[in-house]
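Retry 2 of 3 after timeout on previous attempt. Resubmitting structure tokens to design endpoint.
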């Protein structure tokens, strides 16, 4: 597929796709006229790259990590080194700290919303986060 189709299917700009290629994260072949052609599996690869960027990893770390994953199912391959595993464990701990901080911030916002609304509910409504149990506030 051409770069425009890959961009459309992944909602990633052509400029970003060219950057991914420059960083060694994505590979294309070229037509005789110089147009980039990507294999079908590039869709999964681009989605994986986006997920890793969203998790806060830099392109260098993603370049190290991608050979250790399978695009089709995202499962690990046997290519991960102990050093990479340790580094990714630290990255995961950093993400866990960010999540905990966001959850504390959300609880503070919930308290402010309840106080500002003038109600004294014991269980704030959380329709947008049904997986999180309501916290009693007294």
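Retry 2 succeeded. Sequence:
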């Amino acid at each position: 597929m051409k770069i425009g189709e890959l961009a459309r299917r992944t909602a990633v700009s052509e400029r970003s796709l060219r950057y991914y290629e420059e960083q060694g994260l994505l590979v294309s072949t070229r037509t005789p006229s110089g147009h980039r052609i990507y294999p079908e599996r590039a869709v999964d690869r681009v989605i994986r790259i986006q997920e890793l960027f969203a998790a806060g990893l830099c392109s260098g770390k993603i370049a190290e990590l991608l050979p250790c994953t399978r695009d089709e199912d995202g499962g690990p391959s046997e290519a991960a080194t102990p050093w990479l595993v340790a580094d990714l464990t630290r990255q995961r701990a950093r993400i866990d700290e960010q999540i905990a901080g966001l959850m504390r911030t959300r609880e503070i916002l919930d308290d402010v919303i309840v106080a500002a609304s003038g109600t004294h509910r014991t269980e704030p409504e959380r329709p947008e986060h049904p997986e999180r149990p309501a916290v009693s506030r007294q």
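Attempt log closed. The chain is about 55% helix and 5% strand.
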